[in-house]
Amino acid sequence: MVQDLDMMKKVYANFKSNVDSARKLLGRPMTFTEKILYAHLKPANGGQGTELKIFGRGQDYVDFFPDRVAMQDATAQMALLQFMSAGIPKVAVPSTVHCDHLIQAEINAATDLATANRDNAEVYEFLANVSRKYGIGFWKPGAGIIHQVVLENYAFPGGMMIGTDSHTPNAGGLGMIAIGVGGADAVDVMAGIPWELKFPKLIGVKLTGKLKGWSSPKDVILKLAGILTVKGGTGAIVEYFGAGTESLSCTGKGTICNMGAEIGATTSLFPYDSRMSDYLKKTERTEIAKMADGVADCLKADVEVEKNPEKFYDQVITIDLDTLEPHINGPFTPDLATPISEFAKAVKQNGWPEKLSAALIGSCTNSSYEDIDRVTAVAKQALGQGAKAKCEFLITPGSEQVRATIERDGQLGVLSQMGANVMANACGPCIGQWKRHGALEKNSIITSFNRNFTARNDGNPKTHAFVASPETVIGFALTGDLSIDFTKEPITNDKGEKIMLQPPKGLDLPDKGFVKDEHGYIEPEKDGSKVSVSINPQSDRLQALNPFSAPNVNSDFMGLRLLIKAKGKCTTDHISMAGSWLKFRGHLDNISNNLLIGAINSFNGEPNKVKNQTSGTHGAVPATARDYKAKGIGWIVVGEENYGEGSSREHAALEPRHLGGKAIIVKSFARIHETNLKKQGMLPLIFATPADYEKIREDDTFALNPKDLAPGKQLTLTVKHTDGKTEEILLNHTFNDQQIGWFKAGSALNLIAASSKK
After folding, report:
1. For the Aconitase A/isopropylmalate dehydratase small subunit swivel domain, which residue ranges apply (predicted)?
2. Which of 24, 393, 659, 698 is the most exposed place for a label (fewest CB within 10 A)?
């Protein structure tokens, strides 16, 4: 049965007329992105929406009505706690919860899943009961990774979705605008409130030619990350076009869109084509394919756009698939891109560990049937020539549907023979849920994941993590050595003989169809009013939320102290670590004990060691924040470029708010984090002159006047140094009138709760 078919029928019934109206207004051809955005100015079920007008890219805030919401278990806890506190009886749009983040990889799939069900029973029960009560679909632990399950069951061409995970754009592989957000944004949409987004700029990526040899869809985004860097896509949607798109499978397109999060893009998407139609039919959604076929001309950029892309996109990049090499990105950042022909040299020049300690295939980015089938093709070659993996080798299927299908079709058996350990259908090591034994020393791993920030995968800052395609990962697993280019050089088999590997070929879809997951999904109650949801006050995993207080703009922002001046990269992993901290995602006070413990203090070059200005002693960041809060002292954080890049986790915004923070002042923000801070009543502010970052001293005292907060109007930070000198620093912000309302109310949720009681 196709999920939410009635909703999609309504979207498609109005899609063409909405696009035609927008094209008439604009008076020009339209990109695919623009068609979807303009088609979602009103809710699918009718009703009032945003007035149709020409919106300025990167300028105008626009209210959109997404078709659905998806949440993973780690972020769903806080999102649903917020939804419960708003007093709304049922979600207004189709929504789902997916239990994929809390399963730790250690031994094998069965053992690890049993451990997760035991250790997380309280959280899983809470999520299941909230889902049943409020009309939310619930996917049980082991059913699969959220983005793979969404692609298999919910994504549809021309649709619009938000998800509480930064890799929600994976659904762009099925021609959907899917955007990662914080939990408070999800609450808006589930409450039936329009969702606000600054109208994005558009980056057009033209694909020509066809992939050859060892190159794969993953190499497209690895190369693009090297071109645009981790912040090059900020405030923009990446739209792929050109003849090259048609040569890529639907799941291959999903891989590319998924990792678009690593360039800071709002989302990424591909035009609808026959490969998407094939995928919909294989996943038993022929009805959707037929509806999409009926408006196919609307599900891609207009012909004139493809002919003259420079006229319609803010930036155009061309990638020739014919000449694209496999790429390896890293270590420590996903945008350090090196083609394989230059990688061995880079390894030696940079002193990266040549010996490979582990190779990992999976994650939401690369765990499709096609990925596993191509990897299996390499494994069969190797086994036939007497070679097996020369390092630890882990496989993580993307969903139970994929796992059961590759078990039936024999791929799992082949990979096990080669030495692979198959883990649970979950995020696992990609998000730090890897109970790795040993490997505390400096070492290298290679993964088919998306991120490789310091210590992200295994908690070890000495681990050099490299990101590549699944085909490249298994190639290096067979060499055990990063200095060997297996695409051109022979590798050594288990007998010491030299053998050559040939480029793999594989199926993107199973000939016999997919094996459906019949047990992973639980429907919500039709009437959830009798379902009770309880939270144990003594729990260390879950905590009911108390609303944040509205600020006193006359007194709360005087006499502020500096909590930390962060140096260099400060991602959401630095601000609110994952890994072992994931278990506290439903307990705001407990998880706040990881606030900024990974950030580097610019004054001493150390993490989690800052000066307490009232005692003169040095201590942990969270403890210092708690001390300031107990003494009624507000504080600020100062940071550098692209502050808050990475995950959509709103805990990185909730924690500073909970511990008494008033403002985060940086050179620039990542989009999702800036919005999350605004939603929670914080002040995300930007140095008007980036060099003013250097003026901030450890013992300074600060004052702000948010009473003057207005759209487009700068704020002034008054800085008092201990030598008696005072100076004023101008700060920019991106608040609009509605967002200023969030700030004055104490949070966006406070406004929702107030309106629901009227």
Report:
1. 562-688
2. 24
567 shares a domain with 466? no
Share of the chain above pLDDT 90, in %: 95
CB 224 within 8 A of CB 240: no
Burial 261-275 (b: 16+ CB within 10 A, else e): bbbbbbbbbbbbbeb
Are 493 and 581 in a shared domain?
no
CATH code, domain carrying 728: 3.20.19.10
Q: What percent of the chain has pLDDT over 70?
A: 100
556 part of the active site? no
**Can you tell me the distance from the alpha carbon of 201 to that of 660, in angstroms, rounded to the nearest whole number?**
35
pLDDT band at 758 (very low <50, low <70, confident <90, very high): low
**190-215 tens-digit pLDDT:** 999 999 999 999 999 999 999 999 99
* The domain boundary residue, chosen from 455, 472, 499: 499
The whole-number pLDDT of residue 149 equals 98
Catalytic annotation present for 408: no
Task: Let me know if residue 163 belongs to a domain.
Answer: no
Same domain? For 731 and 596 the reply is: yes
**Residue of 40, 98, 374, 649 with catalytic role:** 649
> Is 185 noted as a catalytic residue in this protein?
no
Q: Is residue 194 included in any domain, yes or no? A: no
Helix (H) or strand (E) holding 731: strand 726-732
Q: How many domains does the chain have?
A: 2
Instruction: Identify the domain containing residue 588 by its residue range.
Output: 560-756
Residue 438: per-residue pLDDT? 81
* Identified catalytic residue from 68, 374, 451, 464: 451
